[in-house]
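User: quick one, sequence for these tokens?
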């Protein structure tokens, strides 16, 4: 959020202190300021904790088998948890010194009038460079500290890694086996009230709707996230799932703001076929004038993870918003998800829609 005029003196002191901590961390470890910034940010800017985290010989995520993983066969036969034997224990330290990040980005302004959310398909079913991409997700969250995070295609080793590394977030999962969605709540800003899972009866891909009821600065919100049925051939089931989502959003009391976000796999004509969105439910991207620069979240030319030769550009990732009776202003902060941590390797499949 922009602050008119000059930066307040207390914030200047915070920035100066964090710059000093970054310089000290970098001097001790021999790493760049960006790496220092990430470790300090995810450890609440406590030097001892950050150094302990950095010098850990191994991150014990439990008894994860180190066998060569069997590539999954998505989307009709998602790999069960026991078959995804990905060892994130000894992941290499990723050099992100090419990432141009200003230290002031880590100064989270706890402004009650703002709320930030990101939805992100992190592609856990793709085992290529999984360790680097797992670290990339945590680095991104540490740098930008959104209040709420919706993740899709999370697998158990990835889930355990997030619980270990993203300690400033409370994490609620939509399942425990195979692959699933999670909702992450920033502990300092978001209070968990309750959560529930609504099954999709006819899914062939282990999909469901995760609903999390929270309070943010005294305001009650219902957060919903899902990964709707994939591929063109499953359009009918995907539309049925969309109907369930919209019905659930409408059932929430009008005094509560409802936000749905996730990888919907929707094509525009499918939304039209179900009658469009109800009057009180907004598609955030459309509501903000359909900005062209963040139209597509599935772009095989921009993201080469899957090495797809054909050019595909679609808006799979969407955020729906049903304001409470006294709804406030909304603004979109487009896509920050192109956090490249390996040559030609995005941290995810879909650049992530973010709004504040």
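Assistant:
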């Amino acid at each position: 959020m922009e602050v008119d005029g000059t930066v307040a003196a207390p914030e200047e002191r915070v920035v100066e202190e964090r710059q000093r901590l970054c310089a000290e961390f970098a001097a001790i470890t021999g790493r760049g300021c960006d790496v220092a910034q990430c470790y300090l940010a995810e450890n609440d800017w406590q030097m001892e904790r950050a150094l302990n985290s950095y010098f850990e010989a191994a991150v014990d995520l439990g008894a994860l088998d180190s066998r060569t993983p069997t590539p999954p066969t998505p989307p009709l036969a998602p790999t069960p948890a026991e078959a995804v034997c990905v060892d994130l224990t000894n992941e290499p330290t990723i050099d992100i010194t090419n990432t141009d990040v200003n230290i002031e980005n880590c100064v989270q302004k706890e402004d009650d009038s703002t709320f930030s959310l990101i939805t992100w398909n992190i592609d856990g079913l793709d085992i290529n460079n999984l360790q680097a991409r797992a670290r990339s997700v945590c680095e991104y969250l540490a740098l930008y500290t959104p209040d709420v995070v919706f993740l899709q295609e999370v697998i158990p080793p990835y889930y355990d890694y997030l619980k270990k590394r993203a300690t400033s977030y409370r994490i609620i999962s939509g399942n425990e086996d195979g692959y699933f969605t999670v909702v992450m709540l920033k502990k300092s800003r978001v209070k968990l009230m309750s959560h529930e899972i609504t099954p999709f009866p006819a899914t062939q891909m282990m999909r469901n709707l995760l609903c999390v009821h929270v309070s943010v600065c005294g305001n009650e919100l219902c957060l919903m996230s899902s990964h709707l049925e994939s591929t063109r051939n499953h359009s009918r089931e995907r539309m049925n799932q969309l109907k369930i989502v919209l019905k659930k959003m409408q059932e929430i009391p009008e005094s509560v703001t409802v936000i749905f976000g996730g990888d919907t796999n929707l094509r525009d004509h499918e939304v039209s076929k179900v009658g469009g969105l109800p009057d009180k439910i907004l598609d955030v991207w459309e509501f903000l004038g359909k900005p062209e620069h963040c139209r597509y979240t599935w772009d095989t030319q921009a993201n080469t993870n899957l090495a797809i030769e054909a050019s595909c550009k679609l808006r799979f990732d969407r955020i729906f918003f049903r304001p409470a009776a006294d709804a406030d202003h909304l603004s979109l902060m487009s896509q920050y998800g192109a956090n490249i941590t390996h040559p030609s390797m995005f941290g995810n499949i879909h650049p992530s829609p973010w709004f504040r």
